[in-house]
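Worked Example 4.2. Read the sequence first, then its C-alpha cells.
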Amino acid sequence: MTNTPRKTEPFQTIVPTKAMNMFLFPFSFDRKNKEQLVHALEVNLFEFFSIQNKHLEKEYYGEQYYVSHDSLDQYFLPYIECILFPDSCEKEGLLRFSKKIDHTITLHTFSTTVSSNVLSVDVFLCPFEIGVMTIRTEMSHNHYTYDDILEFMNHFRVLEPKLAEEHGSTITYEHHPYSKVQDYIFSQLAPFLNEHIKKEATPEQHVGSLPYFIDERMFVLSYVTVNQEQEINSTTLFRTGQLNSYTPEGKAFISAHNHEYIKTYNTKHVYSRWAPETYYVITDHVFSCISKSTDSKTDQLLMNHLFGQHYYNLFLHFFYKIVLLKLSYEYSQLTFHKNSEGIERLIRSITVFSGKYFFLEISSRTEGQEFSELF
C-alpha cells in the first residue's frame, strides 16, 4: 500500500503592515567608456556612495528608516571593506552611485492593482564590466494582502514579458502606462543609462541582457512585517521563495502540493534563527525577511540589517555569480587553436578575480557567515 503525500497547509490570509522591496537589474558596460558613464551619473544627480559620508544614512530608505554606516563598517572583514566601500570613484571595487527618486507607480495585473513608491535607485559599476541597478520601493498603503505583495514582486521583476502568464500587466506613472518594466526604467529612472549599456550581438537579447546570466527578470529583496497574532506557516514561506502570487483567474497560487516536498524545500531555503517571529527566505529569485515584530526598535534594526549589511553580503555574492558565469561563458566561446590572445585574457581575468575579489570568508559575525553559505 502506497502512502499518499500529505497536502500543504492551508493558505493564510495575511495582512501585512509594511512592505519594502529592492530589485537588482544586472547589465554590462564597456570598460573604455567607464569615465563617461561616471560623468553621466554625476550629471544626472547620482551621488557617489561612501560610508564616510554619514548624511547618506537617511537619504535613500524612506522617511522612517536609515542604514547605519557604522554597522556596515563593523560587519565585514577589512579585505572585503575595500572592495565594497571604495572611498572614491577612481578606486577599484563596487562603485555605488545613488539617487533619491520619490515616484508613485501603480502596477495593474489581471488579479489586482497595487501602488508603490519608488524611493531611490542605486547604480553599481563593478569590475569585469558588470553593472547592477537596484530599484528600492515601498508599498504606499497598508490595505494590501500578502498575495498582492507577492504579485507586485513577481511582475515588477519581469523586465520584458515573454511568457503568457507575464503578459497583461502594466506600470503606470503620472498617467502614462508602460507595458514593459524596462521601458519605465529607461524613460523615468535612468534614461541616460541605455546608451552606456553594452549591447549583445544577438538581436533577440533585450537591452542590457547578459547571455551567460538569468533571463529578463530581476532579483528581489523584500522586507515585510505582518500582524503579531498571525502565524507564518510553511506554505507562506514556500510561496515567498517561489514568488507564487495569483493564478490568471485571481486565486491564490502555490506551485507545489506535497507537504514533504515543501518541508524539504524550506529546510534548505529558510533561515529560521529568529523564528517564529522572523524568517529569512533565500532562493535563486528572492531574499526576503518576514517578521511579526511590531516593536519600532526591532523594526528599524531588521530593516537596517536587510538594507545594509545583508544587502551588501548578498550583492557581493550576486557579483561573484555573474563573474563566474561570465568567465565560463567566455571559456566556452574560445577557439583554442586560433585565439591565443583570448586565452591569455581569460587566464588573466581568472587570476585577478580569484586573487583580488573572491573570498569565502567575508564577515566575522556568525549570521554573516551563515548567510554567506546560503547566498
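Now turn to a second chain, presented in exactly the same format:
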Amino acid sequence: MTRVAAVDCGTNSIRLLVADADPETGELVELDRRMTIVRLGQGVDRTGRLAPDALERTFAACREYAAVIKEHGAQRLRFVATSASRDAENRDEFVRGVLDILGVEPEVITGDQEAEFSFTGATRELEGRDDLTKPYLVVDIGGGSTEFVVGEEHVRAARSVDVGCVRMTERHLVADGSVTDPPTPEQVAAIRADIEAALDLAERTVPLREAHTLVGLAGSVTTVSAIAQELPEYDSAAIHHSRVSHDKVREITEWLLRSTHAERAAIASMHPGRVDVIAAGALVLLAIMERIGAQEVVVSEHDILDGIAWSVA
C-alpha cells in the first residue's frame, strides 16, 4: 500500500482525498475525504481574473488540508486545478499560494486530462458488474466545465466544454449583483441554448449516444440524488451508486427552476454553497439525459479525485 493524497481544486469547490492505494489489487482504502465550497471561479467568466476573496477562501482550505495530510502521513501528494484556474489571467498568484502552503505546484490540467481522471475514478470499481452495460458515458458536471468521456475499460473519446453550474448561473441568472429568484423563462431558455450548443460541440468528438450506461459525477448530480431520495442529510453511502430516473431528474429540475432561494436552502441535504447554482447544474444533467435518451443516471461519489489518487499511486 502507498499512502497518497489528492487535491482537486475546481471552480466551485476544493476537495481532498487521503487513501491507501494498492495498484496490484486495485484497492483504494479511503482514510479521509472532505470538500469545501470556495467558489474560486467567482466572477472569472466576467473579469478573466481570480477574485482576491476567492483566492483567500481557497488558501484557507489549503491550510486546513495541509494539516490533514501531515496528520495522516501521506507519502505522495498531487494537486490538480481545473477550469477556473485555466481561464484566469492571474493564475500565477494562485500557483504561488498553493506552493507556499502545500509544498507542491498545482497542475493546471487540460480538459482532456480532467476527463481521463474522472473516468478512471468513476468506473474502476464498476468492473465485473453484470447489471451495467458498457460502454459507459461518464459525465462530470463541474462549476465551470463539464467533461464527457465514453469508454469501456479505457477511455475511447473525451471532451471538455465550458458549461458548468457556476458559469451558467453567473452568465445568465445574475442581475444587479444577485441571482434571480426564481429565474425567468427567458433566462432558463438562454441557459438551455448554451447547454445544447455545448452538447453539439461534445458530440463532434465523443459518441455520446453510443453509451449504454450514464454515470454522473460531482455535486450537482449527487445533490439531485439526495433530493430524489429525500435524505434527512447528505449521505455519501446512500448516494454512491444510486440510480435516478429521467422522469425524477426532470421533476426535480423543474421544481428547482421555479423555487426560491429560501425553498432550496430548506432542503435538508443541500450544501449552502450549492443553493444558488444547483438549478443550473440540474438543468445540465437533464439536457444530457434528453440528448442521449438515458432512462436513468448512475450516481457516483467516486470521481476525478479518485482518479488523481490512482495516478499518484
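Notes for the reader: The radius of gyration is 18 Å. Residues 52-72 form the longest helix (21 residues).
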